[in-house]
Amino acid sequence: MSKRAVRILLVVVVILGGLFVAADRLAVNFAENEAAEKLRTNEGLSETPDVSIQGFPFLTQVAGGELDDVEIGIKDYDARSGSDSIRIADLTAHMKGVKFSGDYSSATAATATGTAHVSYDELLKAGKSEPVSLPLGATGKVVGLSDGGNGKIKVEVEVSKGGAKLPKPVHVLSSLRVEGDTIKVHADEIPKKLEILGVAVPLPEGMVRDVTDFEQKIDDLPAGIKLQKVEAAPDGVDMTVTGSDVSLTG
Questions:
Q1: Per-residue model confidence as pLDDT tens digits over 69-93
Q2: How far is Cα 67 from Cα 95, in angstroms, rounded to an integer?
Q3: Within a 10 A sphere around the Cβ of 219, how many other Cβ atoms?
Q4: Which helix (H) or strand (E) holds 16?
Q5: What pLDDT is attached to residue 53?
Q6: In whole angstroms, what is the distance from residue 156 CA to residue 40 CA?
Q7: What is the distance of C-alpha 150 from the center of its chain?
Q8: Residue 204 is inside which H or E element, if any?
Q9: Is 96 helix (H, G, I), strand (E, B) or coil?
Q10: Closest by CA position to 156, among listed 204, 212, 200, 230
Q11: What pTM value is reported for the model?
């Protein structure tokens, strides 16, 4: 083969390669948009989520009937919490081994891992809405949550007596854990006594925990993913989520 023929062949290969890449990118963009819209509809989202299909080339993955890695990102997702809801500010999930049906109407991932974030204001909704009785006719109620450092949450309790708030709120450091689909907030230590109108009053532990300890159920994460781990962060709670055989498009 002459040098001129080789050059022509190389030019043709480069052109065809460029066309393949362009076609591949167009196809993946179309698939991402379709999957995002399907997810928005199925989950009843107010905004279309971000869907990113990783790996190249996309078309060969389609031909094999399985995508290597799909990432979804959802902003401001309202998950159910019993009869109420809780706003999840950011949720990102990486789905591996995504197989889809022959008519592309559904897709299921072998595994999924991700993260989610809930602000302290949202988590506070789980606190008791009504004041809880304390000794000497006083009442206590959780009114604030914040970062306590070292993975702890600082719980602020407002104590009232006869309708008047005590000058100083009570603060306790609490630990977080996940049990099933529920986040549990448990005080590490509770005050043994509380000064009420100048009187140091002993505080039964069970009575105090009725105020300080609470839980938040989250049982409606998208695509069937579940809570795995939770930890305190400066502006809220970071959650790790996971799942297997999870649905991407319904």
A1: 888 888 888 877 766 788 888 888 8
A2: 9
A3: 13
A4: helix 3-43
A5: 82
A6: 37
A7: 21
A8: none
A9: strand
A10: 212
A11: 0.78
